[in-house]
Amino acid sequence: MPLAAALDLDLPTANSANNPASLGQRYSTQIQQGFNAHLQVIADTPKMADLLTGHASVGYMNTGAYTTAAKTRFNPSDLMTFGASLDLSMERWIHHVSLSAEAVGNTGLSHSKSNSTMNGSDLGTVIEVGPAVRYQVGALRAYTGFLADVGKATYRAYNYRVNFGVSMLWGGAQ
After folding, report:
1. Range of 155's domain?
2. How confident is the model at residue 21 (pLDDT cuts 50, 70, 90)?
3. pTM: predicted TM-score of the whole model, two decimal places
4. Beta strand 97-108 with 125-137: parallel, antiparallel or unpaired?
5. Based on the structure, what is the number of domains in the chain?
6. For the domain that residue 7 is a member of, what is the CATH number?
């Protein structure tokens, strides 16, 4: 079974001044979103019918602190992440490319902090879904995607976000 270690980087897309929907407890009234780093382990299934591959992942995300409109320094909870996707190989038509349907989620590991005060009522699970494109040559894989938040607004970190990253596979067939 092929495995991958991946590092994702999230662009700061959740500025509430530019986003009309409620951003919930974790990201309300912000003026600057912190930069998020996400380390994860991914397991791939063998390719089925030379077209489909399944993925499952588990990871840890360190969320960056940011300043709110009230000049408070806000540090969101770090997150335990999980996900699954189904890839459709485009190899017959476009070499090294696959299209993917993604479902990812996260849950807070601790309460967030405003300045040095710990907040309550901000732990919960969020689910995001969306399409992605992967480009793989040998053991190296790059990907980008668009995710829309379908979780409860209370715990919503984003309404939508662009996700991108690179990974290197080891073990199993590539």
Report:
1. 3-170
2. very low
3. 0.63
4. antiparallel
5. 1
6. 2.40.160
